[in-house]
Amino acid sequence: MLERLNQAMEHIESRLDQSIDVAGLARIAATSEYHLRRMFSALAGMPLSEYIRRRRLTVAGAEVLDGREPLLEIAVRYGYGSGEAFARAFRAVHGVGPGEARRTGAALVSQPRLAFRLTVEGSSSMRYRVVDRPDFSVVGLKARVPLVHTGPNQAIIDFVRGIDPRVSERLEKLSDQEPKGIVSVCDDLDPSRAEGTGLDYYHGVITSAAAPEGTVALAVPAGTWAVFTVSGPAPQAIQELWRDVFTQWFPSNPYRSRRGPEILRTRMAADSTEADAELWLPVEREQAEPPGRG
Q1: Within a 10 A sphere around the Cβ of 246, how many other Cβ atoms?
Q2: Do 184 and 263 touch, CB atoms closer than 8 A?
Q3: I need a surface site. Which of 153, 160, 162, 168 has the fewest CB within 10 A?
């Protein structure tokens, strides 16, 4: 998987001054577009679209400082329809406009080319199982919140704190399927998975019961799920589990992520310093490559 991903990175470099089709990158990486975006974001710490933008503006920045071509020609070469649009994007990355950078020789920001390598530490094993599930429903309360990659998500915290405990108790009694009890469910994430983009967050249960008045239901079709478990300090152990799934488990196993809700069941210790967590991710088997490829 990582070798294919590096081939996709080479393709990006060869087309920085042309359009880049993410579906084409996924074909090079021999995976789905959805999984490519998920894998890249987890490994690189930024969305794929952001990396492409920063690489383009890094190369464009060198040409701006070189001073041999008009700024508008550089802007058009790297996909900007006007000098104003180029200037806004340039300033967002470099902290200075292209005209000022050329006049003053200002120091610019450089986004290095990325290459991925698998580092095997062997310090711990990952507990997981793969299960096929028939269709089911998530029933509970829903809010649209921003995506936060690191640290607490205050919008989710405020939403959950505002739920009447009696509502949570009534919901928990409806739970009749795994994972049991109250769960956190994230769905309808922006494909870029960029910081601040929106997602649907559900505080609810997995159940065969109808949604009571005042709640909503999310229908989930049948499919395969990878289920990961972890115990440890909260929230560190859970955050590290998310990281390890995408940086270690997916590159080492014949599965890729597919569209669907991501489900987390957390049980906190009495002092709230430790947690047992179970993470359910929708997956599908990677398709075998045709003979003669590789």
Answers
A1: 18
A2: yes
A3: 162
Contact between 230 and 277 under an 8 Å Cβ cutoff? The reply is: yes
Q: How far apart are the first and last CA of the chain?
A: 11
Using CA atoms, how far residue 169 sits from 96, 181, 283, in Å, is 54, 10, 31
Residues 6+ apart with CB under 8 A from 148: 155, 195
3-state secondary structure (DSSP) of residue 43: helix
Rounded CA gap, 200 and 174, in Å? Answer: 21
Query: Would you tell me how many other CB atoms lie within 10 Å of the CB of residue 190?
Result: 13
Q: What are the DSSP E strand ranges found in 49-100?
A: none
pTM of the model: 0.76
**Helix/strand/coil for 129:** strand
Cβ neighbours around 96 below 10 Å, total? 20
**Helices then strands, each counted (H, E), the chain:** 11, 9
* Closest to 261 measured CA to CA, from 159, 161, 186: 186
